[in-house]
Amino acid sequence: MIQINTTQSAEAVIEEMQSLARQCGFQQIGVSDINLTEAENQLQDWLARGFHGEMHFMERHGVKRSRPDVLLPDTVRVITARMDYWPESTAAPWPVIADDQKGFVSRYALGRDYHKLMRKRLLRLSNSLEALLGKMGYRVFCDSAPVMEKALAEKSGLGWMGKHTNILNRQHGSYFFLGEIYTDMPLPLTKSVSAHCGKCSACIDICPTQAIVAPYQLDARRCISYLTIELRGAIPESLRPLIGNRIYGCDDCQLVCPWNKFAQPSMESSFQPRENLDAPQLLDLFAWSETEFYQKLEGSPIRRIGYDCWQRNLAVALGNARPSQPIQQALRARLPIVNEMVAEHIEWALKRQLMS
């Protein structure tokens, strides 16, 4: 096992690590051990209930997701890092959600894709930690492998698991990305924090599709983020009216959370809105060709759903908008040139437009 090359106290080591993390653009780090037995049991129960829907990657890899030393042999600690993402300059969310002529995009996806930025910063932090503490074996992760990032973040003290299943921080709310460094260095541990949701059920009550079936239990098959991002086929017809104008993800459970009044805006230029995505007109987005979609959203996390799912999501939002000739004309014009899956949603939207 690698030994820490320092005579400092555990508290001093953690303080130095936090300082290095801030220099790399993170707001906080924590250190956890690799015992995720409780989280593993919860994951198996969640999978057994089918709550993961078509996210079959959640079933793969055996116990690698919940046992860090199986994914990366010799791992004894996980450094978890938190980076705030709420854009410093963005349109107020609720007025956008209330405007059926506009589309709502989850605030984490307004700018550039965070994965590359986080990985680069995690690598920089790892190099800085080696310079401080000595040679160590490590590997960095940011949604790039089977990692239980929320369980690790909770265990290392970055926050607690809220009833909406997002990690909450008492001083910073929940608008942050998570990344991990698996290492063979026996670093001092940071303490977990107590939960502070109390009797609050705001996130459960606000969910448009009632996807939070009980406190701390999310049925992803009903979640708008799953339906608009992870699902590649047809959105269940019964859920389409409930999606409203949310075209990529959903922030309702976070927007209503009292702890997010403490959220701090991000200074990262990469996370600032592009292409007016913080308050876009639905018809403007629907008019994009496939080429425009990929060009305008280069470097955006939205790109990964592909043009067809983008058109599908927009069709649902247009179907939920108040009837208008421009919307009906746009839907009819697009109908002959789309695939069967998108056509189904456009036809549904047209029926909604003509029936309203």
From TrEMBL:
Which keywords, in A-to-Z order, does the entry hold?
4Fe-4S, Cobalamin, Cobalt, Cytoplasm, Iron, Iron-sulfur, Metal-binding, Oxidoreductase, Queuosine biosynthesis, tRNA processing
Coarse class of the protein's main subcellular location: cytoplasm
Single Gene Ontology BP annotation:
tRNA queuosine(34) biosynthetic process
- Residue positions binding [4Fe-4S] cluster 1: C197, C200, C203, C257
Q: What class of enzyme is it?
A: oxidoreductase
Question: One Pfam family name from the record?
Answer: QueG_DUF1730
Cofactor names from the entry are: cob(II)alamin; [4Fe-4S] cluster
Q: Which domain of life is it from?
A: Bacteria
Q: Please verify whether the record's keywords include Chaperone.
A: no
Q: Recite the UniProt cofactor note for this protein.
A: Binds 2 [4Fe-4S] clusters per monomer.
Q: Which pathway, per its entry?
A: tRNA modification; tRNA-queuosine biosynthesis
Q: What does this protein do?
A: Catalyzes the conversion of epoxyqueuosine (oQ) to queuosine (Q), which is a hypermodified base found in the wobble positions of tRNA(Asp), tRNA(Asn), tRNA(His) and tRNA(Tyr).
Q: How does it assemble?
A: Monomer.
Q: Which family does it belong to?
A: Belongs to the QueG family.
Q: What is this protein called?
A: Epoxyqueuosine reductase
Organism, by scientific name, is: Methylophaga frappieri (strain ATCC BAA-2434 / DSM 25690 / JAM7)
| Gene assigned in the entry | queG
